[in-house]
Amino acid sequence: MGISIQGAHVVIVAFITTPLAIVALGLRLWSRRLQKVALGFNDYMAIQAMIFAAATVSVVLAGKIFLSRAFPIPLTNRALDVFIGATGAHMAEIQATEPGVFTLFITLFIPAQILWAVANTSVKLSILSLYTILFPGQLFRRICYATMAISVAYFISVFLGAFLLCQPVQYNWNKTIPNGKCYNQGIAYLLSGIANLLIDAFIVVLPMRKLYRLQVPFTKRIVIGAMFGLGALICIFSLLRIISVLSWDLTDSTYTGSGVAAYSILEPTLGVVNACLPLTRPALKKLLENSSSGWAGKSLRYYGSSSTEANVTSTNGNPDHQHQFRRLEDNIPLTDVRPTNSQHCPL
Fold first, then answer.
1. Which of 51, 223, 259, 343 could bridge to 244 as Cys pair (CB 3.0-4.6 Å)?
2. What is the spatial distance between Cα 59 and Cα 191, in angstroms, rounded to a whole number?
3. How many CB atoms lie within 10 A of CB 338?
4. In the 8-state DSSP scheme, what is residue 86?
């Protein structure tokens, strides 16, 4: 049996959005270097977000490697199906046929939650920190700092929830422990998703009033619009994740968790892209300049002459009247070439 459709969807999402996030972060850091600007708190938070987003993706996709080292059991295609994207087979079937696979899946589910929360929180802190630099106003900055504190508090709640919802902690992956119990996991995950969505939406709309008053060139408006458009898209993914949580059956999480897994990858990776997008202009400009100069150089070599002189026929159509024109050197600006008298040159 090959990889399940649910698992394939998660793999596709991971292999599209993760490289985009890496490229966006690379352009951001290159832009800083081109501008000769030292990295600030918002840059380090973007780097941290990328690291933990990649770690989240790795936990989802590297199941076969970890399984082969942790459990002396044959790794069937079904085992790989289950772990990639946390979907592929019903939980009861996996527990009956390959209990080691199920145990590892549940065990890594806790660090996956924490990695996801760190990545998302780092994205929020990076964007809010950048807001405090871009936009003036003491009140606005205080609101940004307060939102940063709320984001950190949100992460702490996710961290504690991962370890406190089930007592003892081992009961998460070993349901045979006597007197073990889990407390409203579904409600906790739902409330966590709603809180994440509200914070993201607030971060998107927070600078709208200031942006509306800015007098900036059209190109910069496009960049700003793209940034907030992507922010709105991330909010939509957060909402879809909440909907997936509502339909997520924790008693059969290996089969019903594909949507949660996919959106859990989309949020932090696209969040990194969104956090880096406003600061990539110098690098993109440099790339365009290099591309343009390369095209111009090829054109010059193709159409140009090896000599600095060329015979040009005069416009009166008489081939007997030919003049020698000398090519101006490149270091002579065109603005310095003017007629010697005050009259206009004839067209």
1. 259
2. 24
3. 8
4. G
pLDDT of residue 341 exceeding 70, the answer is: no
Cα separation values, 33 from 26, 36, 72, 256, Å: 11, 5, 49, 45
- In one-letter notation, the amino acid at residue 83 is F
Residue 52 is predicted with a pLDDT of 95
164 neighbors 114 (Cβ within 8 angstroms): no
Read off the tokens for 98. Answer: 């390959």
The one-letter code for the residue type at 314 is S
From 235, 246, 165, 144, select the one nearest 195 (Cα to Cα).
235
Tokens of 113: 């939650």
**Which of the 8 DSSP states describes residue 316?**
T
- Are the C-beta atoms of residues 267 and 274 closer than 8 Å to each other? no
Q: pLDDT for 104-152, tens place per residue?
A: 777 777 888 899 999 999 999 999 999 998 888 899 999 999 999 999 9
3-class DSSP assignment, residue 207? coil
Please give the domain boundaries of the chain with CATH numbers for all domains: 5-280 (1.20.1070)
pTM given for the model: 0.72
Question: Which burial class, exposed, middle or buried, applies to 318 when counting CB atoms under 10 A from its CB (0-12, 13-18, 19+)?
Answer: exposed
Tokens at 54, concatenated: 């990649």
Which residues, at least 6 apart from 105, have a Cβ–Cβ distance to it below 8 Å?
63, 82, 83, 86, 94, 254
**Which residues on neighbouring strands pair with residue 311, listed in sequence order?**
324
d(CA 47, CA 275): 10
For residues 318 and 296, what is the distance between their CA atoms, to the nearest angstrom? 33
168 prior amide bond cis, ω within 30:
yes
Q: What are the CA-CA distances from residue 206 to residues 45, 132, 149, 210, 212 (Å)?
A: 19, 11, 15, 9, 12
Residue 324, beta-bridge partner list: 311
3-state secondary structure of 37: coil
Q: How does pLDDT run across 293-317, given as a tens digit for each residue?
A: 654 445 434 444 444 444 444 444 4
Residues sharing a CB contact under 8 Å with residue 86, sequence separation 6 or more, in sequence order: 10, 60, 105, 109, 253, 254, 257, 258, 260, 261
